[in-house]
Fold each of these.
Amino acid sequence: MINSQLVRLGLPTLLLAVLSLPAAAQSFRVQCPYSTITHPAPSPVTPIPSGGNVNSFEPAYTAPTTYAPNTQGFLAPTGKVNGAIKCQQISGGDGYATMADGTQTFMFSFGPLSGIADIANGQPGTEYPDVFNIPFGGAQAGAVGGATPLPGDPATTDGAVAGATSTSLYVQGNWQAPAFTYNGAIGQIPDATCAAEPASCVLNTPTTPTSGTFAYIDGHVDPRQIMDVGVMNGNIPAPLMAFDEDDEFFLTLTNVGMIMRPDLFEQHTVHFHGYPNASPFYDGVPDASVAINIGGSFTYYYLAPDAGTYFWHCHITPPEHLQMGMVGQLFVRPRQDRVPATATVYQGLVAQESDPRTACATATSGNQFVPPDILCSNPLPAAGDNKTTGGFVNGAATKKYAYNDGDGSTAYDVEYPLQIHGFDPNFHFVGMTFNPEAFVDMKDKYFLLNGRSYPDTVSPGPQATQSSDGRMHYSQPMPSIINIPVGGKALLRIADLSVTEYATLASLGIPMHVIGYNAKLLRDQEGNNMDYYSNSITIGGGESLDVILDASDASCGSSGCAAKLYPSGSVFYLYTPQLDHLSNDAENFGGLMTEVRIN
Amino acid sequence: MSSTTMNKAISMKRLLPLLTMAASLVLTVTAQAAAPGIKGTAGTGALGTFNLIAQPGNLNQPDGNTVYSWGYGCTSSTTVTPAPVFAPALPNAACGAMQVPGPTLIVTEGTTVTVTLTNNLPAAAGNTSILFPGFAVTSSGGVQGLLTNEAAPGSTVTYTFVASSPGTRAYYSGTQSDLQVEMGLYGAIIVLPANVPAACTTGLHASNLVAEATWGETDFRLSPAAYDHPGTCYDREYLFQFSEMDANIHRAAYAQVLAKAACTSATAPGCSGGLEVATEPYRPSYFLINGRSMPDDMDPNYGAEYPNQPYNGNPHMHPGEQTLIRVIGQGRWEHPFHEHANHVRILARDGNLILSPDGQSLAGMLMFTTDTFPGQAFDGIFYFTGRGLNWDMYAHNPTSSDPLAKLPCTPDANGYNTSAPTAINYFEWCQDHNKPLESNPLGDVSGGGPMTLPNPNIFANGAWYSGSPYLGPDATLRSDTSLRNATAGTFVPGVTPAAPLNSGASGCATGQLGVGAGATATATPNCSNLQPSNVQANPANERGWAYMWHSHNEREITTNNVFPGGMLMMMLVDSREFVIDESK
């Protein structure tokens, strides 16, 4: 089935093409400044590891960022600065995934090129500059196996072997301490040109230290490392992204080419789906912007939008690239997570109202809404301050919220992104060969939660697939086991990326508390919460929805229940009542289903 | 696999989209949209009186196919119908023998609506009718049918109802609906509020009219408000009717119509009864916005090449304008429709305004992907301002020599520059004013921003890409300073001179574009050879911000298996100096 000749021919050809580009137009590169005009830093910047970078942690939110006009005529932060800088690098290319019936499926896909140890652990690959900018083999632990990562990493270094299931990577129920722990940007190396011409280097990256261990880290990358790790390394879901309101997010997409389809000079982009007031330049629609060719990198820039559950995908030939697997999850955590314990979350929301960027609507008459901000969903709660306090302690959120609700109504203990998607095996087979693809007859046969179908959804740890390069790759890093601490609440960040039909997900046991829709809090313009309870949700492709699975015994009332409704050790299910979606192609049991476990 | 097949595959995949796009662009560049329709047919007297006819006709598709269909129309060779009253009054406005969707009926709340339907479908199609869900309809004449009175072939039926509440709703055939609606017998009725709230004609909405007048724009709205509620004011509006079409059903219907027309005896085989067309299994290959597939939907309203598909889908708007979108699902499938660039506030579904418990405030959901369900309509408000981008989308540069680069931005209570409705940067988001995007820009825009833009040679540019990250002709040009020629000359904005405008170093060289806002024959020329793409759907005098609005059941953005196509259109946010003319 796999034409290895294509691989042998295609890979060297592609590498040659990359390496033969003139040095002056280096096309692979990353961007992750230690500071910006929005997140300034003392000069010179103190690099890691000699001390924490000022923009590599989240400060508490007590008031909006303060601004004053600077000499260049724009408002620059003075004193109080909120948020941090976060960066991520991804590859656009191809790869293989393993379906629950054992079928290896070809994908057009994104793979991680930063935070790859975190991604393998089911976490976002979004990193602070002082993690992202550390070269492989630098001062950070995990640089085993030589000075550069190995092809297929992290699976190669971790020792993933063909035929093993993700559970067999476990020893006595515990995920083996992975051998590969590097989370920086793959390929990041000192810029030799920069060393010779520090003036131009400094010009390009004003805050780069020009001496010491981290000299001349200006986004220059070694294409070999990019290709070693990025080729045939597609993930489904595409790498997870997460950051906080007030962050600046630098997302670099590097197009490593599709080895199995050397006939296609396929471009890729990133569409940040749902970003409010997006610019077309960073919206990823190739017709309205630029598309990234093979051998090129492009860094997308976003100031974090309003908190919520978004997602992202390639926008090149969407019916093809989405069906083929180029779909990922993305969420933005609210400012309210950073409200300190000395304040109420209501006071935190009042503070947000004093900055027009984060305010809901300042122009009101009585309680009657007056434009212009008809698109705001989180006005102050109508019930006023219920004295729910913040929980930001020592730089960490001890209380977590889905939205800036001002009343604590979206509080949760654990969160799980859940991506609903479908694969049509016929389309994927055609996509691996050279036939024209038929869209009219597209019919999904694999129904995926985070890229896996039941029972793979409840296999812990990353699932690996051997690709046609002979290497094991972590193809499906995210299990969908919902672990809830007894009495706790789990936030499910659900996104439907199906390109063919609506999807229903039902909860067998724990009620679904729907609190957000399309990355917006469910609240009317007077501040009345419009959340609701259900046992199932239905959303279309391109929609997201926030559900809290409330495993507390709140429904028992003040007198309580005789026994816990959701005791430790009990197991519940999330599944689809679209019964034909409970299948894995020809297998009639599986599909869109996973377990909820009370711990 | 043979090399022949492979070549075919490549050409199918790579060339067809380009060809279809190139073919469309001749017309798309200036087309805008609105919510056009008819307010009544004159001659019979009052507005609200409509004489409609159900007739067969052909729909054009961008793959070159014509599809036999049925639709509602205003005139025919057999029936004299008075000329309709069009709203808005667009040049070329017409209501022919049939159209898909049917004529949009526009009435004011409280009006008594009378619709007389004449059945000019082929006799074999049998009776037909119209349902008006959401209204208390009285039918008269015709023959009794299952859901309402029906018009027999060649006969008429009349429906009367009071347009009791505002909003957007569907109308469609209530006879053999699985076939007749599929064949195209559907349309929209818009009821305008009787009492426009004062808030909709004062404040920012009045300022927006000042801004429009400054640039010579016409107000094409049907009303300043969607409902009798101040939360429903709007500055611009569009109507989109989504449907899908299985051409096999249409072919089968046509074959039976022809066969039955040839019958000499009702007792001959296949000659008895009406049409028996299988509508399952359903396998649609065309996905339509207002009866057209992309890219045809972006051609003008009432375009001569679409005699039976007069309505387009080509939204434009300026920053800050509250844009009302009226959307109806006219097919049998759901369509999750993704509006790039911002959320949509759902005002109402099927004309029912969604309010908070005290009836004062809006309570409809905010959605970035709006659900459209069969037969269901919604009204929603969308806007774009660029708030929170963290860089100046106009690329203002206080050190520039270009006065347009140094415009002030005075924030109102919400942070927008609304006190200067005659300025190009009316409604600019002031917190990012002058804030640079690029670290080391080449052009005449501020530096010191967070981003190093890459070498443009390693990217593919889209047809709607303006050539820069910035909004509008002036900002786009200033980011391209290396091509600027500050010497006086004569030029026409957006027009490529056939020869150098001036000899020597002055003026624009051959092949360069003269661009700029408010330019006159004696103004300083701005010259550029910027070529963002080989096809320019976003010309030098526009340089708007383009967004794709499309079905997120992504396979529906295809036309008969070819991408791009189907249920897709580009939405343009235009800088103020570009005149949005919905009569085009």
Amino acid sequence: MLEQFTFVGLLFFVALFLSIMMIGLAWLLRPKRPNPRKSEIYECGLQPHGEPWVQYKAQYYIFALVFLIFDVEAVFLFPWALAYNWLPFYAVLEGVIFILLLAAALVYVWRKGVLEWV
Amino acid sequence: MEFLSRLLTFLSNAIVNVGGWIEGLLVNLGLGEPLVSLAMGLIGAAVVGFFPLLVVIFLIWAYRKLIARMQGRLGPNSSGTWAGPYGILQTFADAIKMLTKEDVRPQGIDVVPYNLAPILVVVVSLMVWAVIPFGPGDALVGTDLTIGIFYILAFSSAGLFVFLMAGWSSNNKYATVGAFRAVAQLIGYEIPQLLAVLAVVMVVGSLRMQDIVAAQDVMFLVAMPVSALIFFLASMAEINARPFELLEAESELVCGYFVEYSGMKFGMFYLAEFMNTVAVAAIFTTLFLGGWRGPWVDQAPILGTLWFLLKMGLVILGWMFFQMTLPRLRIDQMLAFNWKFLVPLGLANLCVVGLVNKGIVAALVGEVSAWTQAGILLGANLVVILATWGILAASERRAWRRQETWQAAQAGELEVGA
Amino acid sequence: MTLQQIFFFVFAALTLVGGLAVVTARKLFHAALWLLLTFFGVAGLYVLLEAPFFAAAQLFVYMGAIGILIIFAIMLTRGIMRQDAPRFNEQWWLAGLLAIVLLVVLGWLAWQQPWTTTAAPIREDSLHLLGLALVDPEGFALPFEVASVLLVMALIGAAMIVKEG
């Protein structure tokens, strides 16, 4: 089974070589004239104001957390879906219960207003 | 005459025959066995690596020309400087421009992640091509991994951190906010993609891409339209196509997470975006449109590759129609669409298809033909569609009634107040 | 030195270097990126153990979800990206001693253990067998459902924390 992955490794090196070659070609071909005006951070043409790390919305974290839960659920569902064709009916029901529990949790979180982008 | 028939036989399986000819050359050069297979592997990897680049070069031109024509403009053309007939050489001009632009280095950046991000973004886009089947047999796939489709999903998911790297290391508020939004959108829409793929994997019973293609006597687009629709929409968000184009909202975020990149580094992000489009089109074709299947593929396997490319083109054309007509969504609309519509729909689809398929197949004794199976699946999907339509209509009616009551109350208040 | 051994050393080096760099990095964001490299190394080790599904699951869940969650948590904390985090504190000698003791004990245990290897190849349909075992009432059906309940609890807990804060 391991021989299957040799191609993946080869493709990784080819892809890496390709990207580095493109960047290298650009490095060779482009002009280099640094200038303090050019190095200023872009802020719609004005002077950059304050620190670049302000407090961002906490909602990003909430959505990432919900995504993590569903991600793990999906990883559990993959073996179940693979064996589906050979499963008796009650086993399919077990999987559906798994999904319904998480759907119920999603509905709960939705009603509680956690999924709002306030 | 005999030469013609031999040429046709050679061409009918052209890619495999050329590969065999090269291998023969290498063996005649006297190289040992492991070196020959390594060299063949490298050549295969180079072909698979360069193929998306070639397609992207053509795609960028087609994209700009078609969208312009459909919007009543001219698009790339030769009316100013000569750029080939119909402006075909425009993409090469773009590439030369990007190679020769100065790399403006902003102050205060974090050097290593800043320079690594463009390289990694292209690498990750190219890695998914290892398992895409271009034709029948083992020779026309990079490698037919046992975990085929799961490998693709895993690599797309693992590649998301490059956006955070690019955004954070740019030392720019807009870049960081853009990176956050990019990641929030991309991780959100992976779940419906996963659920749609799960439905397909359920029916096929295997993760291998060649098995998924082989199981499609009836295209899964016809047998499981809900899964196809969910995957189509979720993929549009994954490739930043309008209406999900928040990530480079030029009027709002000024290019989002790659605002501080210039020259070829920006070119790499641009390239990666188009390569993602082509990759996801290839995945959609394999999963739902039957991959390389089509008439006369048994006699001439090269036709399989042709059908594959045609179907990929159709999918990209479909996305282009959406892209040129719809405006951009806001971030809360995009997130609400995902978590409040696509994810519950995907979960419901999985449950209904699972239960109905198993129930009916268990009731029918004996072997079910492919068409019967497709009919059963289509029936299950129709149940899901009707139920969704009913729920959406009911909630819309409730919202409308609430709106009417509110308006009546306003009018009532005004009358009383005056 | 077979090719497999070379790859093992490469991935093991990636994992160890990544792990070391996580705890000794000056900036917190760099520590998070080194952590992602560690996850990638572990995924490579899974591939070498002929468990490609778990390698992909590692990439999917750890690199794609948990890594992103950690980076979000770091970036959403005000001011923490500005200062360089202190790398060593005063009890570094005690920590070093405990680490060496742990290394010696684990190493001795691993050396003494008669590791059994089987010459039987991994079955092609091992994933289908896993699926069958997950829903078998005499298999892992109960842990399967309990895992779902655990995930529900995690989601509800997160919702409660959000609504309080």
